[in-house]
Amino acid sequence: MPFDIESKFVIAVASSALFDLTESDRVFREHGEEVYREYQREHENEILTPGVAYPLIKRLLSINTSQDQIVEVILLSRNDPDTGLRVLKSIEKYGLTISRAVFVAGSNLFSPYLNLDSTPLTPIQ
C-alpha cells in the first residue's frame, strides 16, 4: 500500500548536509573507495556530528506531534551501505524521526528525472 504524502510537507536532505562527513570524504579522496568502506566499517559505532542542515531538519521535525505527522524528511545519499549504517545509527542517536533513506552507492540520484542525453532542450520563446 502506498504511503500518502498528499497532506504532508516532504523535504529531502543529503546525508552530507545532515551530518558532517568531511573526514569520511577526505579518506575517500585520498585513499579510494575500498579504504573508505573499511574506514566506515571501523567507525560504524561512532556517531557523526551535526552538519549544516541538521538544525533546520531538527526544527522541521519538531513540528510533528504523536497525533499529527505533518513533516516527512527523506534522506538521500550517494554513499554506500557502509556509510548508510553509520548515518542511520546517528539519526537514531539524535532522535530524528527519519524513517526513509536511500543510499545509492555512487549512482546519480536524479538521472531518471533529468534530460541527460546529448539532445539540447529547446528554449521557450
UniProtKB/TrEMBL annotation:
<dbReference type="Pfam" id="PF06189">
    <property type="entry name" value="5-nucleotidase"/>
</dbReference>
<dbReference type="InterPro" id="IPR010394">
    <property type="entry name" value="5-nucleotidase"/>
</dbReference>
<dbReference type="GO" id="GO:0008253">
    <property type="term" value="F:5'-nucleotidase activity"/>
</dbReference>
<keyword id="KW-0378">Hydrolase</keyword>
<protein>
    <submittedName>
        <fullName>5'-nucleotidase</fullName>
        <ecNumber>3.1.3.5</ecNumber>
    </submittedName>
</protein>
